[in-house]
């Protein structure tokens, strides 16, 4: 491959401070984008824990005349394995430090201990959302262990910390400890915004009580940083550069529309009376997130069931925080309308 061909494939401009490296096997969001910042000694989100991904990454380091040992810092935007999976291997071979937000760090640094806790928490949450046992079992079967080490040192951070001259921005929502990053020239977004896919909230991290509220607040933080420093574009964790203002506007409109649809799904009052689109009959009042997910997305299988149920739950919980719906506690979490007509708020943000 010639130098110009490599620049075209990886989206690198001759004077840019970073190199984008497409890595991994593809996810619903698309092929991952790792970022190499030679002048900072930083690699962001090195990719999933596979030999081909590591070879791709190290080949690109060589192409920009960086030895693996020139990497001082491996910054991971969030704990999902397609972003974090190579972090420990790269850090070990480079004798570098892994950096994460303090909330997400245990899911990588204490992998052997945290993984079964996460899997158990996910299953309990899915049960509370009304997801049937057979579907939960199928979800668990897709959630297989990786080759990440049982434990590894991870340096933890919070909003405003800097690593190798890169500022870390706390942007929870997609996960509880998600980070975006800023240099003087570039915003790196992780999965806060994506060019072809709306980041999941709810199913992507079941630790959050109000993931949609957190996510929308993170978008406001991103806007403020972009306005203050004059950024019009950002570099996402999947794909290539996106324009911030129209993407943020589209995502907000998407969530307003989905929240209204979730509200309308509650209109018939209870699953026992046939409401909620596909939920099992019940004498309990209200409708489960799983039943609302059936209305919003139709038949859901595998990890789509987890993400769909989580998406429905996130919108219902945001509406409950706004007083538009009422949350009902019981053997499962259920919701019912608290107002006769949906108020169509301009903003769902807390």
TrEMBL record:
GO molecular function: hydrolase activity
Region Disordered, annotated ranges: 263-292
InterPro entries registered for this protein in UniProt: Metallo-B-lactamas, RibonucZ/Hydroxyglut_hydro, Sec-metab_biosynth-thioest, WH-like_DNA-bd_sf
Record-linked SUPFAM superfamilies: Metallo-hydrolase/oxidoreductase
Compositionally biased residues, Gly residues: 271-280
Domain called Metallo-beta-lactamase: residue spans: 30-229
Keyword Signal in annotation: no
SMART domains reported in the protein's UniProt record: Lactamase_B (SM00849)
Parts forming coiled coils: none
Domain of life (superkingdom): Archaea
Keywords, comma-separated and alphabetical: Hydrolase
Name by which UniProt lists this protein: MBL fold metallo-hydrolase
Organism from which the protein derives: Natrarchaeobaculum aegyptiacum
């Amino acid at each position: 491959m010639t130098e110009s061909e490599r620049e075209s494939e990886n989206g690198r401009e001759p004077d840019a401070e970073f190199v984008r490296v497409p890595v991994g096997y593809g996810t619903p969001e698309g092929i991952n984008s790792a970022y190499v910042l030679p002048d900072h000694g930083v690699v962001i989100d090195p990719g999933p824990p596979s030999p081909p991904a590591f070879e791709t990454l190290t080949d690109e380091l060589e192409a920009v005349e960086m030895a693996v040992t020139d990497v001082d810092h491996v910054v991971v935007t969030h704990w999902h394995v397609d972003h974090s999976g190579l972090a420990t291997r790269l850090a070990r071979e480079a004798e570098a430090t892994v950096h994460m937000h303090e909330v997400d760090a245990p899911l990588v640094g204490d992998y052997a201990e945290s993984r079964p806790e996460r899997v158990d928490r996910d299953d309990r949450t899915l049960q509370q959302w009304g997801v049937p046992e057979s579907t939960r079992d199928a979800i668990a079967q897709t959630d297989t262990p990786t080759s990440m080490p049982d434990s590894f040192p991870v340096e933890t951070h919070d909003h405003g910390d800097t690593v190798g001259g890169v500022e870390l921005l706390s942007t929870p929502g997609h996960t509880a400890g998600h980070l975006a990053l800023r240099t003087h020239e570039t915003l790196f977004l992780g999965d806060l915004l994506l060019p072809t896919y709306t980041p999941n909230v709810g199913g992507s991290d079941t630790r959050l009580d109000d993931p949609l509220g957190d996510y929308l607040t993170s978008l406001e933080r991103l806007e403020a940083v972009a306005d203050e420093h004059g950024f019009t574009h950002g570099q996402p964790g999947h794909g290539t550069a996106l324009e911030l203002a129209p993407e943020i506007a589209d995502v907000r409109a998407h969530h307003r529309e989905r929240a209204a649809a979730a509200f309308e799904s509650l209109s018939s009052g209870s699953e026992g009376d046939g409401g909620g689109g596909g939920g099992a009959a019940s004498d309990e009042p209200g409708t489960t997130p799983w039943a609302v997910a059936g209305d919003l997305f139709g038949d859901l299988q595998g990890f789509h069931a987890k993400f769909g149920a989580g998406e429905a739950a996130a919108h219902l919980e945001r509406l409950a925080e706004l007083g538009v719906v009422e949350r009902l506690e019981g053997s499962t979490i259920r919701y019912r309308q608290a107002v006769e007509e949906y108020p169509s708020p301009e903003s769902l943000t807390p």
